[in-house]
Write a structure and sequence with these properties.
The chain is an alpha/beta fold and 458 residues long. 47% of the residues lie in helices and 17% in strands. The strands form 2 sheets. Strands 8-9-7-10-11-13-12 form a 7-stranded mixed beta sheet, sandwiched between helices. It has a 6-stranded mixed beta sheet with strand order 3-4-5-2-1-6, with helices on one face. A hairpin with a 2-residue loop joins strand 8 and strand 9. It starts with 8 loop residues before the first strand and ends in a 6-residue tail after the last helix. The structure holds ligand FFO, guanosine-5'-triphosphate and magnesium ion. The site of magnesium ion has 6 residues, from helix 9. Pfam families: MMR_HSR1, MnmE_helical, TrmE_N. Belongs to the TRAFAC class TrmE-Era-EngA-EngB-Septin-like GTPase superfamily. TrmE GTPase family. It comes from Alloalcanivorax marinus. Its EC number is 3.6.-.-. It is found in: Cytoplasm.
Length: 458
């Protein structure tokens, strides 16, 4: 809850740029009064569209449009909200905002409407995050998952875990208060069974959350290898259009090229890079440096080799990516090898028996590409369309992992030391980690970090 009485905020809530209609939203105790100053003193029926003329502080006409009044708490933010729906031009909408500010509103910060909805218990933190995810969704699949979270699918699962955890804590802490009976309760077995159940259920939620994050963020795949191996050709083949320049000149690609595609709903961030070699060319050197930057940030590396080269050791990353070994040190990245130009080498297209995760294909003819696509879905752990019930973020996964670790530690305390007090402490830690997900418990600057990444007006 805010410590001071909230002020009234205003922002253009529709996307920047031109559109048929644009919406300015006011939220706070003075929303109705400020709207009245723009439209003149008149009655408004709650939640009903009224046609109105919007005027500035000097009585000058700004626009005509619709006005909607949502008295709190029955509004998106839980406060008094007024929407001014005008024509969707930036000058008009900015002038409307300025007129509201003139009458005492303050321009809203990024995400401030959603933050107020959260603070007023209109939604929990995962739901607020889901709004941003829904807006940012790049595929139908990720939009569907975000909507699941917005409607509370993720929060419900987390809350179920918390409720069971609380039951367990009540029992354990009651037993601690009667030390002479503690040993009995621990050996009874009920606590251990409940704890085991809880760990299993938290594991299931973690799996779903991982799927939800995969759907939201996709897999970042860096295509790397020697010049002319066919990296850009592979990028184009996967993207389905001529995104990158392809020529027979070694060293064609210099800049990092990005393409966002999807495999049956799995978002893939494809990154094509400059061919790796020692080069005296300054521009090419910079391209190669950037290629290594991308490799370090990848989820997976797609190393492309020309299958006409017969003397390559496919198991040795340092020879596939010719650069000082130190560049590759500490690089613990899953790798898929592509033996390209199978049409020229005569290699049969498809998966190779060894090393693992190696595929022969032709970027030029498309032969063998389908097997690579299937492989990428498999290694990503993608379960296919319709399998993610909610979207999730890294911070949710981290919190679930922390909760699981605490529960596991608690189980150890119970089995190895029959230590009820230590178990109670671990259960408390697990609950706190889970409550960080929904925002029932929030650490220091978490809210600021989450809401500041939203757009203004959201
Ligand atoms: N014009 C407009 N369209 C919009 C929004 C908006 O703020 N304005 N939304 C903004 O994101 C989304 C819809 N979300 C909303 C969520 C709750 C309430 C609301 O008034 N809730 C009340 C009453 C609920 C009811 O009548 O069932 C409440 O929760 O008490 C409004 C919009 C998408 N479309
Ligand atoms: N026949 C055949 N030619 C291919 C195949 N893949 C790429 N090529 C050709 O190989 C040459 C190099 O292809 P690119 O895709 O530009 O190779 P690259 O790895 O991106 O090269 P750099 O950007 O220079 O590092 C071009 O002439 C392509 O047409 C393939 O599968 N079969
Ligand atoms: Mg290239």
């Amino acid at each position: 809850m805010p410590l001071t009485a909230p002020d009234t905020i205003v922002a253009v809530t529709t996307a920047p740029g031109r559109g048929g209609v644009g919406v300015v939203r006011l939220s706070g105790p003075d929303a109705r009064r400020i709207a009245g100053a723009l439209i003149g003193d008149r009655a408004l029926t709650p939640r009903t569209a009224h046609f109105a003329r919007f005027r500035d502080g000097q009585g000058q006409l700004i626009d005509e449009g619709l006005v909607l009044w949502f008295p709190g708490p029955g509004s998106f933010t839980g406060e008094d909200v007024v929407e001014l729906q005008g024509h969707g031009g930036p000058v008009i909408l900015d002038t409307l905002v300025a007129a509201c500010v003139h009458h005492g509103a303050r321009p809203a910060l990024a995400g401030e409407f959603s933050q107020r909805a959260f603070l007023n218990d209109k939604m929990d933190l995962t739901q607020a995050e889901a709004i941003a995810d829904l807006i940012d969704a790049g595929t139908r699949e990720s939009a569907r998952a975000a909507l699941g979270s917005l409607q509370g699918a993720f929060s419900r699962e987390v809350n179920t875990l918390v409720e069971q955890l609380i039951q367990l804590r009540i029992y354990v802490e009651a037993a601690i208060d009667f030390p002479e009976e503690e040993i009995d309760f621990l050996s009874e077995g009920g606590v251990a069974d409940d704890l085991t159940d809880l760990i299993a259920q938290a594991g299931t939620v973690l799996d779903s959350a991982r799927q939800g994050r995969l759907i939201r963020e996709g897999l970042t795949l860096v295509i790397a290898g020697k010049p002319n191996a066919g990296k850009s050709s592979l990028m184009n083949a996967l993207a389905g259009h001529e995104a990158a320049i392809v020529t027979e000149v070694a060293g064609t690609t210099r800049d990092v090229l990005r393409e966002a595609i999807q495999l049956d709903g799995l978002p893939l961030n494809l990154i094509d890079t400059a061919g790796l070699r020692e080069s005296p060319d300054r521009v090419e050197q910079e391209g190669i440096r950037r290629a290594y930057d991308e490799i370090r940030k990848a989820d997976r590396l797609l190393v492309v080799v020309d299958s006409q080269e017969t003397d390559v050791d496919l198991t040795d990353l340092a020879t596939l990516l010719p650069r000082s070994q130190q560049e590759l040190d500490h690089l613990d990245l899953p790798v898929t090898r592509v033996l390209n130009k199978a049409d020229l080498s005569g290699l049969p297209a498809g998966p190779r028996p060894s090393p693992a995760d190696t595929f022969a294909l032709s970027a030029a003819t498309g032969e063998g590409l389908e097997a690579l696509r299937d492989h990428l879905k498999t290694v990503a752990g993608y379960q296919g369309t319709g399998q993610s019930r909610f979207s999730a973020r890294r911070r949710h996964i981290t919190a679930l992992e922390q909760a699981l670790a605490a529960l596991e530690k608690g189980r150890q305390q119970l089995y190895q030391h029959a230590a009820g007090e230590l178990l109670a402490e671990d259960l408390r830690a697990a609950q706190q980690a889970l409550e960080e997900i929904t925002g029932a418990f929030t650490a220091d600057d978490l809210l600021g970090r989450i809401f500041s990444s939203f757009c203004i007006g959201k």
